[in-house]
Amino acid sequence: MSTISEAFGTERARRLRAALITAVVAAVVVYAPFYLAPFQVFQLTMVLLYAVALAGLNLLVGFGGQISLGHGAFFAAGAYTAAVMLDRYGTGHLATLPVAAAGCFLLGLGFGVPALRLRGLHLALVTLSFAVFLPPLLKRLEPVTGGSMGLTVSKLEPPAWSGLAEDQWTYFVVLAVAAVALLLARNLLGSRVGRALRAVRDNESAAEVMGVRLSLHKTLAFAWSSMFAGVAGCLYTWVIGFVSPDSFGFVLSITLLAALVVGGLGSLYGPLLGGAFVMYVPSLSQDISEAAPGVVFGLLIITVMFVAPTGLAGLPVRVLSAVTRRPLRTAGPPDGTPEADPATEAEPRSRTGSAASAPLPAADPSVADAEPVGAPPRTEKE
């Protein structure tokens, strides 16, 4: 009975602690744009934007076990979908979001077919090729995409009733979309789809024996991942107000994958930490060395990988486990004499001096003359 009550008490304390942390984070997130400069609000907006893209990549790589180096291409597809709709057709900003999400979902379904027969480095090269040839293709479709000059579109404008500045309104809109996207990713991972993705990642043969349809879930992993990237690209168009093919080179895909690894593969908080890494570390590298910011950026990634091999999301658990497993030092005797060695005390007392010199008890004649148990009877000659 006491064990059950203790378990309920622990669970209740864990829920209260989680609710308290959530409330504090929500308060900070909501009040942050009112106390920060416009550029800092823009940086927070970009962190949320990248977190959406990394949440989709986490579904594919972290939980699906498939490597993709072409995530920047899906990001570009969503960005250009929104830009073309705003520039050519004059639709509203909110109308571009479901179109970009649905279009990238279908694109991911079609691109997920090679994932059925490829894995590892072969799949990575195929996805990288998509990221490499998309920017030149966008340049050749000049009547639609604007070619090398790109497209300039209007940004989000705050309504009069909100009383917010443009950067604040954009921040709250992106925050709402990011919250819905991250909640959707969390629910997906907690559903049958998430469990099937984990099973495929751990052991495909065992997952197939258990009834998991490999072709379906591998294709759906690409589709969901592409949809999240398309949503992030649409938000990018809203925030920046300009798209060009040079903004979505293959370096973007590699940067997104590196950010996810640094943030934490297979972690729900990894995309947020990875988004902060993508946004703040390059600017920090530029401040440290204006001549070679790329070198500083690479060294920072290497340092993080040495300190936190499981990513920044797993660093607190790693530090806590290292602290709890550290042996405690016991205080010595107050008079300064050396402590007794347990191994020495465990040895036979005959080696300790006084115990060896102790006289042995006298033998009992009756006992000495007694016949041993099981001995044959003595004869008269004996």
UniProtKB/TrEMBL annotation:
Regions of biased composition (Low complexity) lie at 354-370
The record's section on Pfam families has: BPD_transp_2
Query: Which keywords fit this entry according to its UniProt record?
Result: Cell membrane, Membrane, Transmembrane, Transmembrane helix
- Classify the protein's membrane topology as the record does: Multi-pass membrane protein
**Residues annotated as transmembrane:** 18-36, 42-61, 68-86, 92-113, 120-138, 169-189, 220-243, 249-282, 294-317
The listed locations are: Cell membrane
Map out region (Disordered) in residue numbers: 327-382
Specify the protein name.
Answer: Branched-chain amino acid ABC transporter permease
Organism in which the protein naturally occurs: Streptomyces albidocamelliae
